[in-house]
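Task: sequence design from structure.
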């Protein structure tokens, strides 16, 4: 029978960092030119990643887009559709308004709600790549007006202003 070597006890190294002096604790670290786990891109010089204005000739016909967006917006404000569905076609300020109105509408009782109907839409183009539109909406036997301004951004229409009366 062979004898096994005797077991040897090895002390594990202390995983805690070494203590530092008081002077080192309050000294500012030297800034590193590198940032861990990030790509070294400077977005301050190049604006090609920003939203790009688009001229009218590169945009789709505005009338059908206005009609669909108006219908979607009034359904969102009535609490019948999630606001995230129009985030791509809404400026952040408009999207915030829609989200707030959607939350308020969600508190209303659902049994009496009927889908709002867009009766008439008027569209005009005051400048290249800009559309102003107004719509007549019937909601709960009440006639309301909606006005919006759309701007051509990244080859699509984006609603930059919205007013509901």
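Answer:
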């Amino acid at each position: 029978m062979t004898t096994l070597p005797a077991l040897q006890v090895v002390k594990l190294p202390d995983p805690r960092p070494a203590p530092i002096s008081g002077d080192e604790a309050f000294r500012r670290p030297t800034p590193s030119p590198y940032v861990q786990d990030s790509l070294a891109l400077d977005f301050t010089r190049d604006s090609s990643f920003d939203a790009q204005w688009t001229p009218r000739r590169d945009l789709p016909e505005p009338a059908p887009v206005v009609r669909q967006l108006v219908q979607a917006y009034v359904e969102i404000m009535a609490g019948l559709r999630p606001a995230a569905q129009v985030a791509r076609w809404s400026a952040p300020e408009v999207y915030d308004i829609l989200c707030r109105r959607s939350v308020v509408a969600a508190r209303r009782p659902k049994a009496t709600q009927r889908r709002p109907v867009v009766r008439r839409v008027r569209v005009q183009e005051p400048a290249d790549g800009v559309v102003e539109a107004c719509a007549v909406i019937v909601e709960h036997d009440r006639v309301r007006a909606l006005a919006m301004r759309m701007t051509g951004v990244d080859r699509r229409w984006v609603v930059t202003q919205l007013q509901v009366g």
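The beta strands are 117-127, 130-139, 142-153, 156-164.
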